Amino acid sequence: MTDAESARGAEITVEELEKMRESAKRRLCAVFAAGAAAFPLFAWLVYSGRDSGEGALKTLLTTAGAAAALSGCAAGALWYVIGRRAYDRFVESFKSKYVLGVVGAMDGFSGLEYDSRSGFTWDELRGAAVVDCGQEKYFKSEDRLTGFYNGARFRISDVTARKMTRRGKKNELVEVFGGQLLCFSRTGGKESAGLVQVFRKEFFRDMGGPRAEHRIRTENARFNDEFNIYADDEHNAYYILTPPMMEKISFFAESAGGQVSLSFSGETLYVAVRRRGMFSPVIDVPVERQAAEIRGDVAIIAKAGDVFLGVPERDA
Questions:
Q1: Looking at the structure, do residues 57 and 119 belong to the same domain, yes or no?
Q2: How many CB atoms lie under 10 A from the CB of residue 269?
Q3: Interatomic CA distance for residues 104 and 118, integer angstroms
Q4: pLDDT tens digits for 2-53?
């Protein structure tokens, strides 16, 4: 798909999106207003049906709690009937039609395709060995953006990995990773003969998934203090983790502002950053102001590309 074809398929005006946003916002306000208006009615109904022999404080607390719960249920049902469809339509249009245009206007990006419902597979994340992938049935990945950044092919998606754990006598679903997974299909000309993993040390317990066989210590003491390093082959690890590359990894980890891990394998580089989800619109902020949030979400691609890949030659 060419840029022109992508743009035609994603065309929507800011004015059209703004109308959708305002419609969803009005309906949400109406739902809140209806819920608030229903509270006194439910409070009266609950109070009139209670035993008059109860203490005043207990009666007040019980009545208020029951009325609040009933008002919340009524508001939820009303939102489902009159508001949910308008909200979902705004979110889907924002993600599938507006995001691509904003990113395509940024320097360095080309050949873009975006699918709000697709992402990485659980098997690929497990093979990348860059984060704990959790259990497959609780895995979710969406908001896939693919294309080229300064000639380097990339893919990025939101990823949520969870697993069921035993806590005392109860099972609890725990999130082991939530953030973005970024994949570049070339690593500046070097090919890694096997897996090399780099985990930010203070986040290693949370981020670390499957580990390669050998624990690596470099000649850079500061880097060793910052990161845990594992590799299938020790010599390959030193080939990939040159002094300039270690400086780049340290710089990126600081600039990304989140928990960071990386894995090198063949000509592929995976970068995982724990942070909030991408491209999530809100209905109480004008659409044009949200374009800055989109550019901020995509900035992680530019940071990683500039740091790790430089400006490679464009593929023929």
A1: no
A2: 28
A3: 19
A4: 333 344 445 678 888 888 888 888 888 887 787 787 777 767 776 776 655 5
Q: Could you tell me if 176 and 54 lie in one domain?
A: no
* Number of domains observed in the structure of the chain: 2
277 and 295 share one domain: yes
Residue 309, CA distances (Å) to 50, 103, 193, 246, 257 in order: 70, 20, 18, 13, 20
Residue 94 and residue 70: Cα distance in Å, rounded? 33
State whether the Cα torsion 231-238-241-148 is positive or negative: negative
Beta partners for residue 130, in sequence order = none
Which candidate, 89, 81, 65, 85, places its Cα nearest to that of 31?
A: 81
- Helices marked H in 216-283: 221-226, 234-240, 243-256
Give CA–CA dist 12/265, Å, rounded. 39
Kindly report the backbone phi and psi dihedral angles of residue 63, in degrees, each rounded to the nearest multiple of 5, phi listed first: -65, -45
The DSSP 8-state label assigned to residue 213 in this structure reads: S
Q: What is the pTM of this model?
A: 0.75
DSSP three-state, residue 241? coil
In a domain, 314, yes or no: no
3-state secondary structure of 220: coil
Same domain, 154 and 60: no
Domain end point (choices 73, 100, 127): 100
Give the count of beta carbons closer than 10 Å to the beta carbon of residue 5.
Answer: 10
Residues 153 and 87 grouped into a single domain: no
Residues 6+ apart with CB under 8 A from 220: 243, 246
Range of the domain at 267: 110-309
pLDDT tens digits, 172-207:
898 988 888 999 886 556 788 889 999 987 665 555
| Residues 254, 179: Cα–Cα separation, whole Å | 16
Tell how strand 192-200 and strand 152-167 pair up: unpaired
Rg of the chain over Cα atoms, rounded to whole angstroms, equals 25
